[in-house]
Amino acid sequence: TVISELKGASLVGLSYEPVFDYFTDLRAEGAFQIVADDYVSTDSGTGIVHQAPAFGEDDYRVLKAAGITATVCPVDMAGCFTEEVPDFVGQHVKAADKGIIRKLKDSGALFRQDVIVHSYPFCPRSDTPIIYRTIDSWYVRVEQMRDRLIAANQQINWVPGHIKDGRMGKWLENAIDWAISRNRYWGTPLPVWINDVSGNQICIGSREELTRLTGVELDDLHRENVDDLVFQIPGEPGDYRRIEEVLDCWFESGSMPYAQLHYPFENQDMFEQGFPAEFIAEGLDQTRGWFYTLIVLGTALFDTHPVKNVIVNGIVMAEDGKKMSKSLRNYSPPDELMETYGADALRLYLINSGLVRAEEQRFSDTGVKDMVRRALLPWLNAFRFLQTYANIDQWSPQENPAPSDNIMDRWILSRLQTLKATIAEEMENDRLYNVVPALFEFIEELTNWYIRLNRARFWQETMNADKQAAYATLYTTLYELSLSMAPFAPFLAETIYKEMTAFGTQDAPLSVHLCAYPEPEAALMQPILEQAVSRMQHIILLGRQKRNQEKVKTKMPLAKLTVIHKDPALLDEIGKLADYIQTELNVKAIDYTTAEADYISLYAKPNSPVLGKRLGKQFNPFRQKIEALSSSQIDELQQSGVITLDGETFTPEDILVFREAITGTDAISDRFISIDLKCELTPELIREGLAREVVNRIQKTRKDIGLNVADRISIKAHASAELGRAIDQHREYIMKDTLALQLEISATPLPTVFDIDDELLSIEIMRSV
């Protein structure tokens, strides 16, 4: 029967009848009255929780705040009820559950009985339930030095930076007194002896003091040797006996900076030279463990921060998001992963994961495999490319090669210097998470741009200056890349380094790990060229995108490409790369225009990760203002590098500018540049495209029959009418690209047959002697 409905707050202060009468005498101390606190939720249970201050931190806090002093602990150290609970004395608290329920039923106090699933603590070793229980402990008074702890924390460089005022800072702001004693056998004995008559305490501070007081010399100070040591103080009645507790092991961990040097008893100079330490690294959970105890003890003893720089890594979880567990077998054994993909792949995966940003990471075998695909295999293939052609040409590096005037050589060497500068800056600031992406980007540029766009230079028959420059550039790049990659992929770096030094590098150290780490050469850095090549890459990618949209193959030549950007200086720089753009996009001509307004319109969006953090609650109003910017306002931002909206100043880093094609044009854009690519085809263009398809099939056949890349060949070809006209018109191009000395048209079909856009081609290839 419902008597009334009312809010919980109106019940606060009312008393109630306890369901058991064991402790009714404690009513005078405030027991058996209703209190309120927001830690109780309606998500589970009834919304009503009894408070047992001896068995819960929240319980203790709530009753203390309410001024209730009643406290009772009727459970012994074995987890069994004491004589204060006569009906269940000697029974383990969990084993007594059924008897307690039965007694409640018999007394009529049981309102409802259900089986519910809820979270409950278990011992990780025995897999048995555990309870929270108060015990007498020894404490370090942390609360009285919170301000000093917070000040010490501010002197530490945390990576990631948000840890300082976030997880670590918040923990210190709410630090409570630290219970440093443990009631177990194993551990470092707390060096406190108490007089069994007077209760006086002596904390022994050295082995010498212990020997002086007890007359016993000890090297091993564990419990089995010190627990029985008893001593007296002249003129004072009673014996001094050691307390039973041992130290919290985190106290020892926090003492590491001085304990490892046996300070202050020796090595004073060594300790003072190395404290605070330069650098440590550990997991995010150590904000409540090692990091915390280092700060507490360092502040308490020396009134300073214990370390200058801390890198915090996240916690590795299984792929299903659960804790990695041997019993659950929810992860692949590391030795099997390394056997399959290599230690370098595992290393790169971890360095490139959220772990180095102090984030939780669900470990993925696929992620490790991806490191091989994205970085290690392309890097190795780049070296094999150099090795293959260097062996064919019997090339070896010169000690001081002449500077190259090839624009792509100058670009890749500039990018190499930028990479080295990036690594130096990011490593100096402990930002590992920015290093591996930069390495990946460079390897991709080296393999998919530099080598692919320069392959023809290595195929030249004579060792002219241009070919020599190509070899020297690629060799220098790969050699210095192996040095740069050494800390991140040490095994492959060593393999490539040793094979490269076999080319005859002068005075090369025995191992890549004995080399000085490479430093950027400012004279080789050309940021304007790097920007131009970057825009060239965007142009090529946009052109491929346009071809895909129009379903026109890259082998089919197109008449004209128009590059669109309002900066004439940038267009001039891009113009120096026209040959590469024409080759990659297979276009006959390129035009350049600064008349952006004829082709595209501009729009802006906020850089959410940057502005969200900076603007907080004001982000949404400013997002609307940024998205409403006109083209002229966006131009102002791009020209001056700054724009002010409602008193708030924004830079191009804060506002992202995008381009979109004007309706009725063939333009296509990304954030950086726009192009207009006409995809109309003429018969001449179609025949040239067919000729490129013929080259592709010949190259495939060369590979299938096992010819060397440098082998010269003779070709016989039989083709349908239109394909035959294409071969006839582009005979010179086909022979040059396939290293053919002879191309003969056959009147009859030949063994190897291909269908090219419904045109039939059959060929026969032979190695020329």
From TrEMBL:
Q: Which InterPro entries match?
A: aa-tRNA-synth_Ia, Anticodon_Ile_ABEc, Ile-tRNA-ligase, Ile-tRNA-ligase_type2, M/V/L/I-tRNA-synth_anticd-bd, Rossmann-like_a/b/a_fold, tRNAsynth_Ia_anticodon-bd, Val/Leu/Ile-tRNA-synth_edit
> Quick one: a GO biological-process term for this protein?
isoleucyl-tRNA aminoacylation
Enzyme kind, highest EC tier: ligase
* Catalytic activity as recorded in UniProt: tRNA(Ile) + L-isoleucine + ATP = L-isoleucyl-tRNA(Ile) + AMP + diphosphate
Which residue numbers delimit the Methionyl/Valyl/Leucyl/Isoleucyl-tRNA synthetase anticodon-binding domain?
409-559
Give the Aminoacyl-tRNA synthetase class Ia domain ranges. 116-360
> Pfam families, per this entry?
Anticodon_1, DUF5915, tRNA-synt_1
Superkingdom of this entry's organism?
A: Bacteria
What EC designation does it have? 6.1.1.5
One GO MF annotation is: aminoacyl-tRNA deacylase activity
Keyword terms of this UniProt record: Aminoacyl-tRNA synthetase, ATP-binding, Ligase, Nucleotide-binding, Protein biosynthesis
Gene3D superfamilies attached to this UniProt entry:
HUPs, Isoleucyl-tRNA Synthetase, Domain 1
Q: What does this protein do?
A: Catalyzes the attachment of isoleucine to tRNA(Ile). As IleRS can inadvertently accommodate and process structurally similar amino acids such as valine, to avoid such errors it has two additional distinct tRNA(Ile)-dependent editing activities. One activity is designated as 'pretransfer' editing and involves the hydrolysis of activated Val-AMP. The other activity is designated 'posttransfer' editing and involves deacylation of mischarged Val-tRNA(Ile).
Q: What is this protein called?
A: isoleucine--tRNA ligase
UniProt source species: SAR86 cluster bacterium
Q: What is the lineage of its organism?
A: Bacteria, Pseudomonadati, Pseudomonadota, Gammaproteobacteria, SAR86 cluster
